[in-house]
Design goal:
The complex is a heterodimer. By secondary structure, chain A is α/β, with parallel strands linked by helices. Chain A has a single domain, classed as Rossmann fold (3-Layer(aba) Sandwich). Chain A has 5 helices and 5 strands, in the order E-H-E-H-E-H-E-H-E-H. In chain A, helix 1 packs across helix 5 and helix 2 packs across helix 3. The longest helix of chain A has 17 residues. In chain B, helix 2 runs antiparallel to helix 5. The longest helix of chain B has 27 residues. Classes of the chains: A alpha/beta, B alpha/beta. Strand 2 of chain A pairs parallel with strand 3 of chain B, so a sheet runs across the interface. The structure holds guanosine-5'-triphosphate and magnesium ion (MG).
Chain lengths: ~140, ~300
Amino acid sequence: MTDRPIRVLIAKPGLDGHDRGAKVVARALRDAGMEVIYTGIRQTPEMIAEAALQEDVDVVGLSILSGAHMDLFPRIVAQLKQKNVDDVLLVCGGIIPEDDLPTLKQMGFAGVFGPGTSTQDLAQFIRDQIGARAGA
Amino acid sequence: MDIDALRAGQPRAVARAISGVERGGASARAIIAAIFRFTGRAHLIGITGAPGTGKSTLVNEIAKQYRRRGKRVGIVAVDPTSPFSGGAILGDRLRMQDLSGDPGVFIRSMATRGNLGGLASTTADAVKILDAAGFEIVLIETVGAGQNEVDIAKNAHTTIVVQAPGLGDDIQAIKAGILEIADLLIVNKADHDEVSATVAALEMNLNLKPMQENDWRPPVLKTIALKGEGVADAVDWIGKHRAYLEDNHLLAQRERARVRAELEMVVQRELVTRLLGGVNGSKVEMLVEKIAARELDVYTAAERLVQEKL
Ligand SMILES: Nc1nc2c(ncn2[C@@H]2O[C@H](COP(=O)(O)OP(=O)(O)OP(=O)(O)O)[C@@H](O)[C@H]2O)c(=O)[nH]1
Ligand SMILES: [Mg+2]
């Protein structure tokens, strides 16, 4: 069912305080017609999973620059599972080395977007993925 | 829908039910029909005021106060939908991070989705779900409101209007609109200059209003939401307002006014859908052509549509 705007949670886990990239993405997804819940910096895995649960989002988008993703992302995925939020589309972006991609895919991240990604491509990716789920 | 899970306040069930009513249609009606008899217990508190006055920060602090007083708190925070893209940035939750990890709090962000008046058309239904889920206090934050977004007054038992220093002079205070719906006036950002001027302008405005013996005079309160200062006092005042409504049998009266407004709105929506939608679509198109060609005036056309259908 996508007879409502796609709802996206944009969160920045970890301790680094740079959220310009996350804000650019939030703004671009808004312009692409999505409802973006923006929770900002320094989000713990628990906070992210709780927001995803209460807001009943379709997509969780994580932005990370600190390099702590291989530590934080599994904890976020575990928290989501624990709260039975098992049906969200997981995407992430920021500074993420190629080598980590297979592990992230395995963890459940459908899309991993590097710093050069156009926000239009990101929006289209989300639309396609959510559309495919609705059709399934 | 799992009604037992919802009544037990399980977040997944609550979240799903709110999405259900946001979608509208038959399933939304079914949800409301199922939970309706469990509603009517919560104290509904509206928080409105101009953009950036500190509503969300204040909601965060008010919720913390109620948690200390042992109440479960549901929050609905509304932000505007872009009229151009249909998208929205829902940023109120960002200011409410102190509440995370507390199972006695549930926060839901909503976009207006084109509705005017400061709320989404489904906000009242989301509030009912929180009410049925056992949240004793429901805080409703409107969009950053101007002079016309006054629907909150019809949806809440107690309405708080938040002002910040330096936003306007005393002429602004006597214009019609948002100040008139206040049960409590809060001047937030009391750490700024000009607080006393703002308080004085609001007091003057209140003094101009003729008062009957038993009328409620909205208190003008000062807060620094960022530091939580003045918030305990504000919550005490919310309690006093509630007691005033109860003692004067006004709660039942407000409830009737609220229900009447809601009934009117639902009937309106239903009639518009029936008269203008579905099989009537082509008929409407024909009338539009005639009006555009100046063959028929708009009142006569509307009359024809209504006559035919009723
Ligand atoms: N100095 C000062 N700043 C405050 C106070 N309360 C809130 N703010 C700041 O004011 C800004 C806006 O606060 P919000 O709580 O988001 O305001 P809002 O009314 O919810 O904003 P909208 O929902 O966009 O209309 C933030 O940067 C807050 O930190 C206060 O008491 N003093
Ligand atoms: Mg706000």
